[in-house]
Amino acid sequence: MSSLAEKISTRRLHSDETSPILLHRRRIYILPGRYGLYFSVLLTIMLIGSINYNNSLGFALTFLMGSMVMVSMLHTHRNLSGLKIRCETARSVFCGDKIAYPVILQNEQAINKPSVRLQIAGEKQAIVNIPASGSIDIYLTMESTQRGRITPGRIRIASDYPLGLLCAWSWIQPDCECIVYPAPEKNPPPADFQLQGDGASNQSSKGSDDFSGLRPYQPGDGLKKIAWKLSQRSDELYSKQFTGGGQKSLWLEWDMVQARSLEQKLSRLCRWILDCEANGLSYGLKIPGTSIPPGQGHRHQHLCLSALATFGQNT
Amino acid sequence: MTGQLSVSNRKMLWILLAQASVIAPHVTRLPFWIIVVSILSGVWGYYAVAGKLYRPGRIILMLLVSLVILAIINSYGTLINRDACIGLLMIMLSFKVLEFKTDRDIMLFVFMGYFLVITNFLFSQSIAMASYMLLVSLLLTSTLVMLNRHDAQLNLKQNLKLAATLLMQSVPIMLVLFVLFPRLPGPVWSMPSDKTQSRTGISDRMSPGSISQLIKSDAVAFRASFINNRPENSSLYWRGPVLWNYDGRTWFPGFTNISQNPGIASYRGKLTNYSLTIEPHQLKWVFALDVPVNTPGNTTLNKNFSLVTRSPIKKRTQFNLQSAISYRIGESITNQVRNSALQLPRNVNPQTRKWVSQLKRSYKRPEQQISQVLNYFNKQDFIYTLNPPLLGRHAIDEFLFQTRKGFCEHYAGSFVYIMRLLNIPARVVLGYQGGEYNKQGGYLIIRQSDAHAWTEVWLQNRGWVRIDPTSAVAPERVERGIDAAIPAFETSGSFLRSRNPILRSLLMSWDAMNYKWHKWVLGYDADKQSGLLEKLGIDTHDWKSIAISLFTGLGIILLIGFIWINLKKFRYEKDQTLRLYALFCQRLTKAGFMRQKHEGPRDFANRVTRQRPDLKEDINLITRFYIQLRYGCNTPEKLFIQFKTRVRKFHPKQTG
Fold first, then answer.
1. Across the interface, which of A56, A67, A78 has its CB nearest the CB of B174?
2. Which of B39, B468, B523, B529 is deepest in the core (most CB within 10 A)?
C-alpha cells in the first residue's frame, strides 16, 4: 500500500526542478498514517458500542471524532499547501563527508505551519516550524557516497500536524547540486612530483620558501603566508613573498600517478592538491580533457578539485 | 513522531490532567482502591518519565496487572460486566503511564481517553455531562495537537484554540452523520449482569403507605404533550395497574388466570391525541390517559384496559397514543369476573360490615349507596395527609371510624372494600393523576408525586365507572394537583416544588430544555430517524437512498469547508505592512505619481519628493518606516502603529 502510494505520488517527478518550488494542491498527497488507522479502529469500537447500547451521545461523540479526522484532513493539507521551497547549491565536500543542502522554506500565508518534516530519501529528517508570513532556513544533510555533481534526489516534505492521524506529503526533486570532490587518499605513497620552473630545472620543493620580502595582504593569500608576527605590530596584515612563487610552479599530471583504479588516481591527485595548497605551492593540474594553469588559493583549489570531481562525467 | 520520549514535564502534566478529567465522573462509581491505585500509578509514571523515579520493568508490571485483575474479580465478583470492565480499563490506563517509552505510547494513551468519554455516557447522558465531556474532548484534542507540534515549549493557548477550531468545524459533519447514519432498533448484545437500577415508581401492589412514599419523590414519571388540546386537569387519570385481590392489608393484581378479551371501549366525542415520554421504570406499564384506544408498536391493551409493553421499559421511550375521555368499558362481564370483583377477606373489620349492612337496608339502588359512601367521606372529618397513623389488624375499621387520616390509597382501598360488601363489583386502579403544565415546553410533566389510586365500580348498563373517593375528601387534589391538596409543611424542603414563581419558571425552562434534549438528542432512534427522513423526502426503506443522502450531505460540507479555507488563504495572503504600503502607493498614484515596477521604495520616494517637496517629510518617514518594518529585524510594535497612523493620515491630493 505504501509503495503504491509512493509510486502514485512520485509519478510526476521526471526531471530536476529549478527553485523555487511551490507546493500546490496538485502535488500534495494525503493518506491516514499509522495512528490514523489505530484511531479508526478505536472509532469502530466506539461506534459498535454506541449501536449496541443505543447511546445517542456515544453516537454523537463517535461522529464528532470521525468528523474531526475529516476536518483535520483539510488542516494537514493546508499545512503544506502554498509552501515555497528554494534549494541552493551546497558547499563542496569530500566524498564520504556529509553534504548540507541549504533549503529555504517560505510561508506566504498568514498562518503558522508547524511540524513540517523534510527528508532526503534514506537520510535523517528535519522538523521545522515555519512562522506565518515568514521563512526558515535549514540544511538538509546527506551522506556523500560518490564524487561528482550530486543532487539531493527526491526530497519528501511531509506533515501530520495537527492531530497526527493523517499524513500529507509531497515529493520535490530540486536541481540544486553539490560538487563532491573525490576523497583524498589516506596514506598516499611519497610524492615524487617536481617543481617546474619555466624551464625544466628540477628543484626541491623547499626552493619556493626562499623569502624575498613583504607586501600588504591581499585576499586570496594563504594563511600560512601571512607574516603574523609582523602583522601583530601594525594595523595591517602582511603577506610574505617568496622568490620563485610566481615563476616556479608545479604541474600535477595524470600520468604521474600510478594507481590501480581511476578513483584511486583521482583520490591521490586530490591529496596532492590539498598538500600543495597547504604548503603554499603554486600548482597546475593536467588531466585528460582539462588543463588548469598553475595557481594558488581556495578558488584555484576548488577549480582543480572540481575538475577531479567531475572527471569522466559530462559537465 | 520521534522514536523516543520527547515530551517535557509540563506537557506530561497536561496529558495526565486531561486523562484525569475523563476519569473524574467515574470516581463515585468505582471502588476506592481503584482510585488510589490509579492516582499512585499516575504520579509514579510522571516521575518515572521525568527520570526521577525507578521505572518498573516488564515482569513487575505483569505482576502488578495480575494482582489488579484478581483484586477486581474480588471487588466485582466477575471480570465481564460493564462496571468491572471500566474499573479494569481505568487501572490499565494508569499503568500505561508507567510504560511510556516513546511518543507513540502517549498517542495511544490519549486515544484511550476518547474511549473513556463514551464509558461515561453509559451512566449519564444529561446536558451537564454532555457539556463536560465536550470540554474533556477539547482537552484531549489539545493534547493530541501538542504531541504533534514539535515545539520545545508548551503553547497551551494555541493548542486549545486549534483544538476548539477543529471541534467546531467538525460539528456540521457530525450533525449530518448523527441524523443520517442508519440507526438500528434495540441492542445487539448486552453485557452480562449490568446492574439493574433501583426503580422508583408505581409498583403493581398497594398497601397503606406505598403511594404516600412516592409522593415525596420529585422524579419525573413521564411527560405528555398533547397534539390538539389538553383535557382538563380533573380528567387527567393516567391508567396503570388494576388491582383485584385484597388480603386485608395489601391489594394485588390477581385476576390473572382468566383470559378475556377486553373488548373495545365505546366512546363519545373527540379522541385525544398525545405522546407520552416515559422514564425507565423497569415495569411494563404505559400510563396512558384513561382510557387508551390505540395500541402503538410494541404495546397491547390488557384485560383491565391498561396499556402494557411486551418487555419492561428500560430506557426512556416515547409512545404516540390516542385516548377517549368519555367512554364505556366492560358493559357485560362474566360471572368469573364478577366474583373476582367481589372477593373479600373474611373475619376482619366487623365494624365496617355492620355499618355497611345498615346502609344496605336504607338504600337499595347501587348509585344511591355509592353516593352515600362518598357523602360519608365528605361529611365526616376525614383528613387528606401524607403522614397517616399506622393501622392495625382491622385496618379499614380503624381508618373509617377512628383515625380518619389517610392518603389516596386509604380512600381507594376502603371504598372498594365497602363496595364489595355492598355487592357492587369494584376494583382499585393505580396510576397518576394530573400533572404540571410546562408553558415553555408546551407539555405536561407527571412526577412520581402525582401517583394516585382510584377505583372503578361496575354498574348495570354502564360498565366500569371511575369513582375517585379522594376527590370527595380533597377535591382540590383532582382539580389543582397534589401540591394544592397537601399542607405545605408536609412537602416543604423540596426544591423542585418551590412555589416561588420566578424559580418555578426557571425550573420549567430547564425542564423544557431537558425534555427537548431527551426527545431529539437522546431519544433519536430508528423510529425518529425514519420519521424525520420521510419528512425530508428520503425513502427510508431503500438503504441506497439513505447512503446517497449521507454522502451527499458530507460532500457538500467538505466542499464548503475546502472553499472556505482556500478563500481565507487568498484573503489574508498579504501582510498588513504590505497592505498599508500599497494604500500609500495608491494615494500617490491618485496624486499623479505611479510607482514603476523597477522602482524600489527609496527611489520612488526620491522621485516624488523632488517634484513635491511639500510632502517630503511624510513620504520619507513612511518610506523609512516601511523599509524598517519590511526588511529590518525585531521591529517594535510601536513602529508599526506609527506607520499605520502616518499612512492613514497621508493625503497627497488634498495638500497639493
1. A67
2. B468
The model's pTM is: 0.68
Asked if the structure places residue A185 within a domain, the reply is: no
Query: Is B235 in the same domain as B333?
Result: yes
Facing residue for A114 by CB, picked from B149, B172, B573: B149
B461 and B609 assigned to the same domain: no
B405-406/B383-384 β-pairing: parallel
Q: Does residue B363 sit in the same domain as residue B444?
A: yes
Beta strand pairing status for A178-181 and A93-94? parallel
Residue A315: inside a domain, yes or no?
no
Is position B88 within any domain?
yes
**Contact at CB, B150 and A114, closer than 8 angstroms:** yes
- Residues A210, A298: one domain? yes
Q: Which domain holds residue B592?
A: 576-655
**Of A119, A146, A180, which marks where a domain is finished?**
A180
Identify whether residues A199 and A173 lie together within a single domain: no
Q: How far apart are CA B643 and CA A107, in angstroms?
A: 24
SS3 A105: strand
Which residue segment(s) compose the domain that A157 sits in?
A: 2-180
From CA A101, how far away is CA A28, in angstroms rounded? 22
Angle at CA of residue A170, ends A169 and A172, nearest 5°: 150
Residue A72 to residue B529: CA distance in whole angstroms: 28
Residues 546-585 of B with CB under 8 A from A: 554, 558, 561-562, 565, 569, 572-573, 575
Q: Are B170 and A57 within 8 A, CB to CB?
A: no
User: Does some domain include residue B197?
Assistant: no
A127 neighbourhood in chain B, CB within 8 Å: 150
Question: How many beta-carbon pairs below 8 A join chains A and B?
Answer: 149
| A188 located within any domain | no
* Residue A101 predicted with pLDDT over 80: yes
Please give the sequence-ordered ranges of beta strands (E in DSSP) within B183-265, or none if there are none. 220-226, 237-243, 245-246, 251-252
Residue where a domain terminates, one of A180, A204, A231:
A180
Flag whether A101 is in a domain: yes
- A280: buried, middle or exposed (CB in 10 Å: 19+, 13-18, 0-12)? middle
User: B497, B519, B552: which is the final residue of a domain?
Assistant: B497
| Whether residue A122 sits in one domain with residue A247 | no
Same domain, yes or no, for B484 and B382?
Answer: yes
Count the neighbouring beta carbons within 10 Å of the beta carbon of residue B177. Answer: 21
Q: How far off is chain B from A48, nearest CA to CA, in Å?
A: 9
Q: Which DSSP string corresponds to B478-495? A: HHH-HHHHS-HHHHTT-G
* Chain B residue whose CA is closest to A71: B170
pLDDT digits (tens, 9 = 90+) for A250-296: 788 888 888 788 888 899 889 888 888 888 888 888 888 888 888 88
The segments of chain B whose pLDDT lies below 50 read 1-2, 191-197, 492-493, 572-573, 655-656
What pLDDT is stored for residue B599 in this prediction? 84
Residues B248 and B163 in one domain: no
- Who among B122, B169, B178 is closest to A60 (CB)? B178
**A33 and A171 both lie in a single domain:** yes
Q: How far is B562 from chain A (nearest CA, A)?
A: 7
- Residue B461 CB contacts under 8 Å (≥ 6 apart), including other chains: B331
The residues, ordered by sequence, that sit 6+ positions from B167 with a Cβ below 8 Å of its Cβ are A64, A68, B134, B137, B138, B141
Domain boundary among B447, B481, B497: B497
Nearest to A55 among B121, B141, B148 (CB): B121
Query: Residue B126: which of B405, B474, B443, B517 has the closest Cα?
Result: B517
| pLDDT at residue A206 in the model | 38
Which residues 79-118 on chain A approach chain B with CB closer than 8 angstroms?
81-82, 108-111, 114-115
Q: Indicate yes or no: CB of A71 within 8 angstroms of CB of B162.
A: no
CB contact under 8 A, B573 and A163: no
B206-235 per-position pLDDT tens digit: 877 777 777 777 788 888 888 888 888 888
